[in-house]
Amino acid sequence: MTSHPSSPSPRRAAARRAATRCASYAAALSLGLALTAAGLTGCSTAPRTPGAAGAGPTPSASAPAVPGVDSRERLSVDGGTREYLMHRPAAEGGGPRPLLIAFHGRGADAAQLREQSGLDKGAEARGMLLVYPEALGKAWGAGSAPSPQRPDPDADVRFTEALVGELVRTGRADAHRVYVAGFSNGGSMALRMAAQRPDLVAGAVSVSGELPTGAAAVKPTGPVPVLTVYGAEDPVRPLAGLPSPGPAAPGEEPVTPTMSARAGSEAFAAAAGAGAPVEEGRPGYDSTTWPPGPAGAKVQLLVMHGAGHTWPGSAMAPPEGFGSVSNALDASTALLDFLTAQKR
Fold first, then answer.
1. Residue 64 lies in a domain
2. pLDDT score for 29
């Protein structure tokens, strides 16, 4: 593990201070989200017997804000039980649906990403099946290296594979339209799935998350359309990358080092055989697009002016020290438009 320099730059010191707020943010937010989670996901304080793969859903305790069917479901993986929230469109029929798996950030949970992103509404309008999986210990194994807290760095990859397999097997998801997205550590997890499972994923989007590097490096292995949305002034995971492990509380898993958002996009473009980048300035953000190569996989990077470690267009206020939310773009609409144009 590479250590931090003894005299960090002001930007790097700010990144450390902001990153350490993640845990306290999640704790403070949990009280505010507790009722929301109970209402939207059907959580219960009563103990439940772990279900087998494909076990029936626990229905929502109250009417969801978006038409459709919301549930908390369980899946048996690697001898244990994993949970996820699922939103199914109100309209029935039509066969297997496009599937979007959305990974929450470090220190957060599925209910928080649901509230932060507002993805349900857009997915409903597009007839998509939307799943928010829960991480173990509120963090995803986005990097390939083991740690004392995560001795098996591939567990979350297998969980995602099993989740896709179950939803395809039961006829709810279309195997040719499986997409992944995420925020922060969840965005890095989405990129890992795209990099290592191009035969499974038809498209991926990362918001404020970068491709792991160093000892935990993840390298793209095939063509996958990838969109990265990033804040130019991100103080937690800087646009230029986090070259050494980030700060963590005693006993917690270190924050995975990452390459720059640009370098990650270039890696996916190279794996896809994409064309030379096309730069374009737009109101409030800069766009770089690597046109599709022979495999038809486009790669795009959107850098939001003045934005921090946030979800553009979100109505949820970020914690102190995370920077500003850009309203120049609605990240949820952008990612859904990008993904639904893709098919494996």
1. yes
2. 35
